[in-house]
Amino acid sequence: MTTSGCDTQAAELTVARTRSKADRPLHLSGEAGVSLIEVLTAIAMLGVIFTAAVGFYQVVVKRTEDTGARRNTIADTRTSLEKISRDVRIGRSATVGAGGASLTITGPAEKYFYDCTSGDCTRSVLNKTTNAVISGPVKLVDDVATSPAIFATVNPFPDSSAASVGVRIAQLPDGRDRAVAMTGEYALRNDCVIPSSTLLPACS
Fold first, then answer.
1. Distance between CA atoms of 106 and 88, rounded to whole angstroms?
2. How many Å apart are CA 36 and CA 82, to the nearest integer?
3. pLDDT tens digits, the chain, 204 residues: what are they?
């Protein structure tokens, strides 16, 4: 009888344990996981984050390239204006070509000829008497807008020591859609400026 009672108690304990295990939710480490929907949702979120990151990176790279291109263009344009200003200031006379795309400066010993008719501004040094090319042409800047006029006369009267040449260089940076424009006005030390559209006494 004793043995039978022990067997009964053991059987009841086994059933109780079985029911307890059956009632508990399955959270075994070996059986834990995610559903297909959760995996797809995670992949979609990662795709959105990756796309946004790539887009932001492309914007940063483009801005950096634009800034670099504009900086180089500004440096080239400023160098060209400085070169023109030095030639004008030592000049005794200056002649602006038709359309304002060329400029001839006659200095004490030589002539300096700027030609921007093709969109690329070049500088040549000429013999003052024969107009023969001594050196050049050397390209200063390229892709320059010729309209409005690059060169213009300011106060072009032979009796005015304030006669000067106005210069406007608008250059488009490589592969960009916004031009960089710089202007300057440079006075001749003496003598006069001859505009192509006005008949004035010849300068010496």
1. 9
2. 69
3. 445 555 666 556 555 555 555 555 544 455 557 788 888 888 889 988 988 888 888 777 777 777 777 777 778 788 888 888 888 888 888 888 888 888 888 888 889 999 988 878 889 999 988 888 898 798 888 778 777 888 887 765 555 545 788 888 887 666 566 677 788 888 877 555 555 555 444 454
